[in-house]
Amino acid sequence: MVYFIILVLTLNILWFGMAFHYFWFKTASAAKLLLIRENRAEPYRSIVAHAIKFIGAFNFAFMLLSIFSLVRFHYPELDKETNAALFFTFFAAHFGQFLGNLPLALKERKGQQPLWPVLQKRMLFIFRNDFILAMLNLIISIYLIYQILN
Predict the structure, then answer these.
(1) Is the pLDDT of residue 76 over 80?
(2) Which of 142, 128, 7, 19 is nearest to 88 (CA)?
(3) 28 and 49 in contact (C-beta within 8 Å)?
(4) Bond before 43 cis per omega within 30 degrees
(5) What contacts 148, CB < 8 A, 6 or more positions away?
């Protein structure tokens, strides 16, 4: 299980790091991703491009938390309760991003126009990976809680 936990922490670092890079440094591209073609004119594009840096900042914080968790995971004196809480926090971060896109994906699947396309190209990649990483972190959190209770 230790190698699985290290793998998931590494995936968290990579995922949050890529999201930070994209939403902080590639704001024009991110704004284009989130705006349908009809709404890409000014001032919408500039507003979204500026506001999207907040998403980058949150991803940066979660990337740092993942790095610190990976570094400190190797110290046996740290309690399982803390690790369970950390992995549940990572689950919440990934699942919250997935849930934010879920209503748009359902709307798109019904053939209606969503605010941005979730089931296409880059957003589909993001949508799926947020769900997968959420479940991986939840599995570890549940495992650690089970260890605590037994």
Answers:
(1) no
(2) 142
(3) yes
(4) yes
(5) 80, 81, 84
